[in-house]
Amino acid sequence: MRYDFDEIVDRRGSGSYKWDSAAERDTLPMWVADMDFRTAPAVVEALRRRVEHGVFGYTLVSEEYYTAVINWFGRRHGLELKREWFIYTSGVVPAVSAIIKALASPGDGVLLLTPVYNCFFSSIRNNGCHAVESALLYNDGKYTVDFDDFERKASDKAVKLFVLCNPHNPGGRVWSADELRRLGDICSRHGVIVVADEIHCELVFPGYRYVPFASLGPEYRDNSVTCVSPSKAFNTAGLQIANIIVSDTARRALIDRAINDNEVCDVNPFGVVGLIAAYNEGEEWLSQLLEYLYDNYMYMKEYIEARFPKLTVTRLEGTYLAWIDCRALGLTSVCIEDSLMEQEHLWINGGTHYGAAGEGFVRINFACPRSTLASGLDRFARWISNRCQ
């Protein structure tokens, strides 16, 4: 069957963090990374059946849950997982925070490829560690790793962890196997553990392939920890479910202890049944979603570059988060974000949320019906035109 991603779902008044946070009702939110589409019907039906049961006590995570994850990653991504490697928790951000708590000590450095997901910085800071930024190289609308700089930073004895965003948010890179191996080899040489946040792993566009870091070989898998969740691909962040995958027994015990210390060791029944339904029955829905997202990306790229050729929409290989180079406007990212909100009631993310390397860029979420995207782009274009008059 064909799924209707053009349907407008009114999210205002639903307790949506994205839609109900703005003071002005006519604000169009294109910031926080969730989608404006209904999730896969199979997920909705599974949740409906669970609601009809009517009792929502403490949840036992069943073997069916683990089987669904193992089969999904084995079938789609060639990643062989074992049941005993799993630790479930309420989300990838709590997972990353607990991993830092478990595997680093206050004062240690945690390496990042910036610009990168803003919550990494707070997770590092909240555990008494400090972020060590290796700025990505930006050329012709694409990011690459400065491996010389990365190795210099990794060789610092204070650096204990590297948090990898794969695919990369906000730069849109889907890292190749060769790039991942080079990063992994550098980390291995210097005793740095790789923490792979792979929450965007399903959101990959034609011509690219997500490579799980742990799939590169036993030596990479055993020097890493992987965090995954269906929440981005199936728009189920509110169900609060994620998995930490750790092959090393001693490291897994430390992380499990930290998960319990942070009190994020329990999950709710809806997260469990939603994950099972998504992974067992949601693949065709996901395939059609990816087609729609890619078309949205191309529409956005062509719209902006036709009207404002001095702006560059970074080549996106995955995710639904456009990263736009606005440096030609001569404005700071904060100024752009604030001015768009004030003048057009368009809520986007300024680039410096993602580190100093994001200055002059903005991030726009295009995971919405085409008509919503068109409205947002019209507001963006009107704002630029008014600024340039």
TrEMBL record:
GO terms for molecular function: cysteine-S-conjugate beta-lyase activity. InterPro entries: Aminotransferase_I/II_large, C-S_lyase_PatB-like, Class-II_PLP-Dep_Aminotrans, PyrdxlP-dep_Trfase, PyrdxlP-dep_Trfase_major, PyrdxlP-dep_Trfase_small. Coiled coil: none annotated. The keyword Disulfide bond does not apply. Residues 34-379 form the Aminotransferase class I/classII large domain. Its EC number is 4.4.1.13. Keywords: Lyase, Pyridoxal phosphate. This is cysteine-S-conjugate beta-lyase. Transmembrane segments: none annotated. Its cofactor is pyridoxal 5'-phosphate. Pfam families: Aminotran_1_2 (PF00155). PANTHER family: PROTEIN MALY (PTHR43525:SF1). It is an enzyme of class 4 (lyase). It comes from Heminiphilus faecis. Belongs to the class-II pyridoxal-phosphate-dependent aminotransferase family. MalY/PatB cystathionine beta-lyase subfamily.
